[in-house]
Amino acid sequence: MSNLITTENLSFSYPASGERLALPVFEDLNVEIAEGSFTAIIGPNGCGKSTLAKHFNAILLPSGGKVWVAGLDTSDEEKLLEIRRQIGMVFQNPDNQIVANVVEEDVAFAPENLGVPSAEIRRRVDEALKTVGMYEYVEHAPHLLSGGQKQRVAIAGVLAMEPRCIVLDEPTAMLDPRGREEVVSTVARLNRERGITVVLITHHMNEAAAADRVIVMHKGGVLADGSPREVFRQVELLREAGLDVPQTVDLLNELRKSGWDVPLDALTPEECAEAIKNTGVGSPRSELSAEKHKEIKGAQNASTDAQPILEIRDLTHIYSAGTPFEHTAIEHINLAFRPGELVGVIGHTGSGKSTLIQHLNALLKPTSGKVLFKGEDIWKDKKFTHSIRGKVGLVFQYPEYQLFEETCWKDIAFGPKNQGITGAELDARVRRAAGFVGIGEELLEKSPFDLSGGQKRRVAIAGVIAMEPDVLILDEPTAGLDAAGRDSILENIRAYQQAQNAAVIMVSHAMEEVADLCSRLIVMNHGKVAMDGIPAEVFTHVEELTGMGLSVPQVTSVFALLRAKGLDVPPDVYTVRYAVARLLERKEGRPC
Amino acid sequence: MLKDITLGQYFPGKTVVHRLDPRTKLLLLIVYIVALFMAKSFLSYGLVLAFLVTVTVLGRIPFKSMTRGLKPMLIFILFTAVLNLFYTKGGTLLVDWWIFHIYSEGVKTAFFMVLRIMLLISGTFLLTYTTSPIALTDALERLLSPLKKIKVPVHELAMMMSIALRFIPTLIEETDKIMSAQKARGADFETGSLIRRAKALIPILVPLFVSAFRRADELATAMECRCYHGGEGRTRLKVLRFATIDLLAFLVGALLLAGVIVLRHFGL
Q: What is the ipTM of this complex?
């Protein structure tokens, strides 16, 4: 295979601006992308992967060295359009790359710019939309589509240029599992069936595992490069760079550490289950460990004795009631939350999660039913309703987009100030909240707009924590962050929960994350509570969960497969730590 | 709550009115407005009204949507009616009570004024109901293209307009989100003095502007990636072409205008 894209001793630095010094990103970087290949680029935030992608189609030009695209030098201005036509690009935020307000007009945008005759544009638009499975939406308005659909329209918009290569810069970061699957399978199909070269930048290791080559970037250099199997077996190297490995690899790695003879490069649950089975660990055994189950459950449900701090009674919410757009978002919900609980709420987009949580702090008024805070109706009078906002703190998705003050201190102080807190107490609150999220004193006087993405998010969360709520609700607090950023935010949340004995409710799409963190899971589906229990219990319903468009942690799939193969392993495994413990017990001949 | 606002809503369809070239419709609207302002009598107003009703029926636009479009303007319409009713003198004195004097001429002017405003708004709505915003900006760009000769950036203006239209729903949604988020931090937009309320808007406006700039920046890059380089050499998916129905439409428009002018000439 010949190379479609080659960087030759590429150097690049963002120019100095104001007080900021020039920021070098690469120094002598050499990367080749073979024609027809499917390459994934992974790396922590700020490693230069997006900057590199922008060099592939001459959006950025090298400060030193060269970038060659299909034999063309990207710094040759004459060839600019030809390069951009051949290398299409799809970005993270679907809303910010759709130009027109009708799907077909948007897909037509690029060929129109290229001066393609109308009849040919028509043909290309129809074909591109059929390829991504969006043809039935030809005349729709893009803003009414789901995230996954919007991204597929964006891909169609690039396809209409008939490119040789598509570069996707974190196209799934803002999508739910269903949308993510739509996008990744579309891209994989284009590569397989059309031979289009694909470069996929991602934070999701499972997506990278589907590529035929993985490049790991770190601090502007290439840390590892090879097939997914070769790359992901370097567990320690990846961890040091602040990256995740797929759970299957993690599990096998832990088992190897304990002296098991398993291969390290299983990327799918099937391969992993096969590898574990081959060790002969699972001679069928009949006695089931019912007692052990109870034991675990008992330990995790300890908090049920406490009085609920927040109760939902027969809650129903209907949007635009009495109009043709009437739509029931949630119906007949009954739930109770207790101090010290860490609850995960999962469900695909449109299942009613967001509507539910906005009732908890009185942003939405129930159509029928009640929300009780410490036994009192939160809508009983205006003053009480207002005060609830401070007692039940709600952190929205992408909270960093709500920052507005001149300094971080002022922004964090906004919430408590609205509650009437002033003077020394206000200052103490701000500093305490900043402490919880690991924002140092030196940052408090800085503008929030000068911080990094992860820091901004932490300041925004501090803005809610500063109200010192008894219940803290977070809507996808880790969306779009890399592994290191995600871990530190989850740690902050846990710290707050423990220090205040607060009830924490976290909405998330990342099953591995809620499985690891939460003591209780609520699964929403079609506006109803489909499941409510400890993770061990919920994740035994693998089929029901997948039927609702949700995924289960990879280890859970591995154990489900092992059971299907006739091995008597427990069904309630949902974290790598627990899986390893169970398997080791087996090996030593103790009952699971 | 903000989502309920509809701005120049478009009802997709395949009727004769929908199929007309947007340029034709735009020009017809101008003809219609001229005719409306020249109308002076019941007869000529009737002619204009008949035209509007015919187009509405042909375009299969429910009359309910037409009246709904008028609702937000109701106060303005009533205000105009009252002003005309009391301040126009002439004809016979109908009511003479305290400081209120109503003349027959006043009733007539008020009636015509209300009719004129309603017909004006309805006509404009009819255009946006049956023409997609993108077709409209396209039509504007084409109609104004002679201005390019005197260095008016017609293409750029049309592009700006269509992007603005594209982002209105997105920004409305965003405003909703930011408002909820600041409310969750105890912000209060509903009570207090005017100044306090204006100040309460800062936590909404700052994030909104920051986000709009970020979106603009990302959109510009995405457009560049899709080979956008201004209007030069650009082709279109849908080419505007005048057809026989457009000619017919112009004829009808000309007849309307001629009719009103003739009636006016005879003092009707």
A: 0.87
